[in-house]
Specification:
single chain, about 290 residues, mainly alpha, globular
Length: about 290
C-alpha cells in the first residue's frame, strides 16, 4: 500500500469513525426534537399574534408544518451517510441518493398540507394536485427503491486486489473533499436563505434550499469517480452501469427546476432508470459467475 493511500485511509477513518457517526446520530435526534418544538412554538406565537414576523411563510400557518423541521435535520444525517458510503460502491451510493430524494419528497408533503383548499374543486387547485403528485410519488419511490436494493444484494462479490484497494482509497479522498465542500455550501445556503427572509423579506422556496447545490456537486463527484474507475476496470458492463448511475443523479438534479408533476416524474424516472441499469448488469454478470464456479 502506497503512502498516499495510508494517509487517505487514516484521514477517512478519523472523519467517518463509528464514534463520530454515533455522536452525529445522537445530535440529529436531539436537534430534531428541539427543532420541532421551536417550529411548533413559532406557529402558535404567530397564531396568538404575540410575535410579529417580517415575512409571510406558509410553514408557519399549520402545526403539521412543524414536522418539516425535524425531517430537514434528518436529511442532513442522511447526506452524511451518503458521503460515508461513497467509497463502498457506486450502487450503494446511488441507493442512498434515492433514499434522500424520497425523504425530500416526504418532507415536501408536510409543506403541501397547509396549502390545501378543501372548499374548491380538488382537481382544479394547484396545491391540491401537488399533494396528490407527492403522495403517489412517495409510494412509487418506496417500492422502486425496495426493488433496487433487492437487485443490489444480487451483485457478484469480486476479490479485492491491489487495484481495487487503490480505487477505494481514491474514493475515500473524494468523500473527505466532498464533505468539506458540502459543509461550506450548507452554511452559504443557510445564510442566503436567512438574508432573503429577514432582510429582503422574500420567501424563497425552502424545498430547494441547499439541495440544488448538493446534487450539482454530487454529479461532479460521481463523474470524477467514474473517470477514476476507467483506470481500474475495463469491463464494458461495469462502465455502462456506473455511467447510468451518474445519469440517475442528473435526472434528480433536473427535477428541482421542474414544476409539479414533471418534478415527481423526473424523480421516479431516475429510480426506474437506475433499476433497469442494475437489472441488466446483473443479467450480464450472472452467466460469468456460473462459468467461474
Amino acid at each position: 500500500m502506497k503512502s498516499w493511500q495510508i494517509q487517505v485511509n487514516t484521514a477517512y477513518k478519523s472523519v467517518f469513525s463509528d464514534s463520530i457517526k454515533k455522536r452525529f446520530e445522537k445530535a440529529t435526534l436531539w436537534l430534531s426534537i428541539i427543532g420541532f418544538i421551536i417550529h411548533l412554538s413559532l406557529i402558535y406565537l404567530k397564531r396568538a399574534q404575540l410575535f410579529d414576523f417580517p415575512f409571510e411563510d406558509s410553514l408557519l400557518n399549520d402545526p403539521i408544518s412543524a414536522i418539516y423541521t425535524p425531517f430537514s435535520i434528518i436529511l442532513i444525517f442522511e447526506i452524511y451517510l451518503l458521503v460515508l458510503n461513497l467509497p463502498r460502491s457506486f450502487t450503494t451510493s446511488v441507493s442512498k441518493q434515492f433514499e434522500i430524494i424520497s425523504l425530500i419528497l416526504i418532507r415536501r408533503i408536510f409543506a403541501d398540507i397547509p396549502k390545501l383548499n378543501l372548499n374548491t374543486d380538488w382537481f382544479t387547485n394547484v396545491a391540491n394536485l401537488q399533494l396528490i403528485y407527492d403522495v403517489l410519488g412517495v409510494l412509487a419511490l418506496y417500492y422502486l427503491i425496495h426493488l433496487f436494493n433487492k437487485g443490489r444484494l444480487k451483485l457478484p462479490k469480486k476479490p479485492v486486489d491491489a487495484n481495487i484497494k487503490r480505487f477505494v482509497s481514491s474514493k475515500k479522498a473524494v468523500s473527505i473533499i466532498l464533505l468539506a465542500v458540502l459543509i461550506v455550501i450548507s452554511f452559504v445556503s443557510l445564510f442566503g436563505w436567512l438574508n432573503n427572509l429577514f432582510f429582503d423579506q422574500v420567501a424563497v422556496d425552502i424545498n430547494n434550499v441547499f439541495f440544488n447545490e448538493f446534487f450539482s456537486i454530487l454529479i461532479l463527484a460521481d463523474v470524477f469517480i467514474l473517470l477514476l474507475s476507467f483506470q481500474y476496470t475495463e469491463q464494458y458492463s461495469q462502465l455502462i452501469r456506473n455511467t447510468g448511475f451518474v445519469i440517475c443523479t442528473i435526472l434528480i438534479r433536473l427535477s428541482f427546476g421542474a414544476p409539479a408533476l414533471t418534478n415527481v416524474l423526473l424523480i421516479i424516472s431516475s429510480v426506474i432508470f437506475g433499476l433497469l441499469i442494475l437489472s441488466i448488469y446483473n443479467l450480464i454478470e450472472a452467466p460469468k459467475i456460473k462459468i467461474s464456479s
